[in-house]
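User: Quick sanity check before I run a bigger batch. Here is a single chain. Can you write out its predicted 3D structure?
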Amino acid sequence: MKTLEGKVALVTGASKGIGRAIAQKFVEMGAQVAFTYLSSVEKGQQLEQELTADGGNAKGFRSDAADNTQAEKLVEDVISEFGKIDILVNNAGITRDGLLMRMSVDQWDAVINTNLKSVFNLTKSATKHMMRAKAGSIINITSVVGIKGNAGQANYAASKAGIIGFTKSVALELGSRNIRCNAVAPGFIETEMTGELDQKVVDEWRKAIPLKRGGTPADVANCVAFLASDEAAYISGQVLQVDGGMLT
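Assistant: Done. Predicted structure follows.
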């Protein structure tokens, strides 16, 4: 059943991993999809070709969500192309790991800007249009690290914890306009990045998860698709953990 039929979705940071899986799931569920990429130009172009190969309506935009001017132009361009934005998924994110005493200001700023400021930029721009339509679903991708913290990731944890507070505040502010805002907190998700880790480290992580496996990008995408749909019409201000029971 195509529960997103007739909806227009904007997904940031969709050239790979979780963002890519979300864009794929949305098209599968009948949505028209605008997505962004930045450094991975070739992968972004490949995704657009893939999403439109079987008749899907999708378009990639090269845009830096951390730049407010680019974010505002992106929203304008998406509305010009598709006519509206029903769903916003703030997924763009990076890591610049390091122990606090060795972390540079640049490492801190880069992560906060890309992971947290981008959520502010896109949400503020997109909700102007959602408020006029008196409808919308915003899903922010946070992390279990934003809930529990993690040594060597003070910048990343702070950015993801900030997203949780932002999500709850936006849900309170915009609920009266029928705009929902939720967050999804992935746990250990096996992507290209985790594929580069030492196998022993990966195995230890899997053992510590009650479901005894890492998650897949599709696991996260399924949750996001539900929150984006009208089936979740009475869910707002929530943080759903997709972590196999890791933080239970």
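The mean pLDDT is 95.

User: Great, the batch can go ahead then.
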